[in-house]
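Meet our chain:
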Amino acid sequence: MGTFIQLVIDGLSAGSIYAALALAIVLVNQATGLINFAQGAMAVLSAYVAYSFLRIGVPLVLAILLAVVVSFIFGALIERFLMRRFERGDPDTAVVVTIGLLTLITGIAGWIWSFNNLQFPSLFPVQSVNILGAVVSVRSIGTTLVIVGIMILLQLLFIGTKLGLALRAVAVNPQSAAFSGLPVGRLLMVGWGLAAALGAIAGALVAPSLTLTPGMMDAALVYALAAVILGGLSSPLGVVIAAWMIGVLENLAAVYIPLIGFDLKIAVPFILIFVVLLVRPQGLFGRKDVVRV
């Protein structure tokens, strides 16, 4: 039982990291209708910004907050001067642009800070607690609680605030939103800025576990995209639950299914995607789009 609890809690911790990126992807999609494949690279860049503040003596919490602010500005500028040229054109072109942006940001990060592994301090103490025979790190608990808090705030943003409703309106139909008097351009910038800020939090959470490198978030991005597909692009709650499912199930499958093991556990989210897309293409918690003609 202790092993099972250990695997579940470790899976929730890993899933929380996937969820942070998945929430950022959902945020961009809710604001612009696009999938941002550069979200992981933007999170890594934010972690390097926080690392640079730490190097000059800024306290950890303040360094992360400053990185969040810088990331918000960076995300808004990316939307204004790059993505706006492609957002309302061919969606395939915009996807290719975000993939190119991923490569560009990764290369710039490596050029400035090198490709060596750098140590990034954790927000949470390096301690463990015993829960029903399982040894659980305080970092895992803290990471999970932070993601739960962010998920609740995003859910409230999209459902219960004028800003969230305006972001969704712009994503669904920017022309109608503009005719209604909404500042479409500024809302798009805010959407990208918020997603980049959320990515900064994800980078600060994952860097202490993996060490800081330009490609640190590549694997996490794959899992985050899987969580987005499973949970549904329209549901922040759904993508978090899907990310937790992926983290827990891949851990359990690696230990309890010999055919999979640790080498093939990455196949677990893709099997889940295949099953869910057959049964419910909009995701477990997503809404089916209804088109009236």
In short: The mean pLDDT is 83. Residues 24-221 form one domain. DSSP finds eleven helices and two strands in the chain. The longest helix spans residues 2-32.
